[in-house]
Amino acid sequence: MEWVALLMFAAVVAVLMAGYPVAFSLGGVALLFAWIGIATGGFDSAFLGTTPNRLFGIMSNETLLAVPLFVFMGVTLERARLAESLLDNLGALFGKMRGGLGISVTLVGMLLAASTGIVGATVVTMGLLSLPTMLRRGYDPRVATGTICAAGTLGQIIPPSIVLVLLGDVMSSAYSQAQLSQGVFAPDTVSVGDLFVGALLPGLLLVGLYMAYIIAVAIVRPAAMPAHQQDGPRPSVVSLVLALLPPLALIVAVLGSIIGGFATPTEAAGVGAVGSVVLALLKRELPMSRLIEVMRTTTRISSMVFLILVGASLFSLVFRGYGGDELVREMLMHLPGGAVGALLIVMLLMFLLGFVLDFIEITFVVVPIVGPILLAMGLDPVWLGVMMAVNLQTSFLTPPFGFSLFYLRGVAPESLATSDIYRGAIPFVALQLVGLALVAAFPALATWLPKVVYGG
Amino acid sequence: MPAGTGRFRFISTAAFSPVPLSDETADKLRGLSRALQRISEATGTAIAWLTLPMVAGTFVIVVLRYAFDVGYIWMQEGVVWLHAAVFMLAAAYTLRHDAHVRVDIFYRGMRPQRRALVDVLGIALFLLPMSVFILSSSWDYVAVSWQIREGSREAGGLPYPFMPLLKSTIPATSVLLVIEGVAELTQRVLVLLGKAEAPAPGGEPVEI
Prior knowledge:
The structure holds two protein chains of two kinds.
Chain A: H1 2-18, H2 22-40, H3 46-49, H4 51-59, H5 66-79, H6 82-94, H7 100-115, H8 119-136, H9 141-153, H10 162-181, H11 192-220, H12 237-259, H13 265-282, H14 288-321, H15 324-333, H16 338-356, H17 359-376, H18 381-395, H19 403-411, H20 418-441, H21 444-454
Helix pairs in contact in A: 1-2, 1-14, 2-14, 4-14, 5-13, 5-14, 6-7, 6-8, 6-12, 7-8, 7-9, 7-11, 7-12, 8-9, 8-19, 9-20, 10-11, 10-17, 10-18, 11-18, 11-20, 11-21, 12-13, 14-17, 15-17, 16-17, 16-18, 18-20
Chain B: H1 5-14, H2 23-48, H3 51-68, H4 73-89, H5 91-96, H6 112-147, H7 162-192
Helix pairs in contact in B: 2-7, 3-4, 4-7, 6-7
């Protein structure tokens, strides 16, 4: 009956295309398959009996608490107009250089990634503030839009990031499952903190690749990103410091405490959330009405994420019940090239799924199935997790359905062709693949820092 | 389109020759739908306040641990349970705001009637069965927890009745989802019959 599991996977992807919310489509399709199976004797109804326990497991999972806390922090900073003051100041600082606006957008993307990490908000803000300036100053629209979209996605790879929290949680249970299956009863663990620390250098590597590309374009095709002579006054040192200090202080408090090994990501998120409120209050950008908006937005995003987890866990329950796990294991084990071949296929599958699905579904549906198998083949969990994270980050950029492109389209001027946004993203997708290849070739990029921080 | 274009065509022509439904009945149904949605709105906006103690509580835990070297299990459990209550009980509210993520590659470009049809099928085939299933399968699980006056599994954790209370959010979430589901089903059927305006597509630009 294993083929039913694959049929169900295909069915769910097809059903999702129709557009009904993912959380309920996942759970609903799985239940229909389970009920048909129970009626025809092909499915053991005992599998469904564990549902309440699994739901309660999701509800009492302490790691996942980091998600609403980071969302709260990100939304607060967004409403406090952190991005605006950064863009104003860094834009004015680098504006006179050829390609300077591109550089400043990338740097702001990096700073926002390390403090808020909400892709949609970052892309929208930069699309509203930087894109018109870049276009007015004669930037090639493709270079301008590509830079903004790519810089926005950094939020998903540079910690703290929601992708890394979700992936870290899934990987940690996959890792203990993999070791149990090999008879290791005192297993090593991998945590969200490991992934945060592991993703830092690869994230900075991507920033470096983006900047190198922008500088290269500025040198080879000066007309694509002209320098700007009659600029306004340079920002005063005071305003520059005032713009940079708040995000830097938060980054030091949140990332510093994680990397220093003092705090778990959840604890750091709590500190960051309170810090962002203090910051917004100091900037006088947090009246009661806006705080209420922050609470409601946090509530909706949190519910959206975890209801997908609820739907996905029903899905994996039924997938497992039909023996889908075994089938996937058999397939992956018999690929030519052993672990490398299996890894390659999984990464390719995730990349392709990334064109149509978003990272939450892929993390909750695909990774729990393939993770334990790959880890049992001896791959390093941090290395694997970081590569998956880079891969998922790329899905924000892949035309035609990358979220980043979609949000930029929403705020870009009508005169800008959608095809320009798509074409602009392509070099950055290529840079992502270069980054991925580098991490694949040099695993130490991901694994060295966690070893230094956490020892072992 | 996986669901079959033929079927869409059938329904969209049906909209031109609606089943007999008097304007009065349509009015009543619209009123019912709105009344039910007010339940989702009220629970959601109330539940959202729990995010504040969740944030503050986590912060206090960190301060207590690092500054004073003390920690309380019940506080740890408290913040996790607030988080659980938020994402569970706000599920219907989130649905009402169309903030549950959709793969909207095709949905985005569809005419309002087709969108309504997708929603009708999704509610009838996925949302309602899933909610009812979770409701019925969790019933005994929660009842047992109340009967045995279940406490926390940890020493120093939250006392009875917090555990059964938290578990009760599972069926409560299902009931709220059924209420919101019925409200949306009614509304979308009215759209298909040409008796109601299609809702404006939701979705917020704060996608994480």
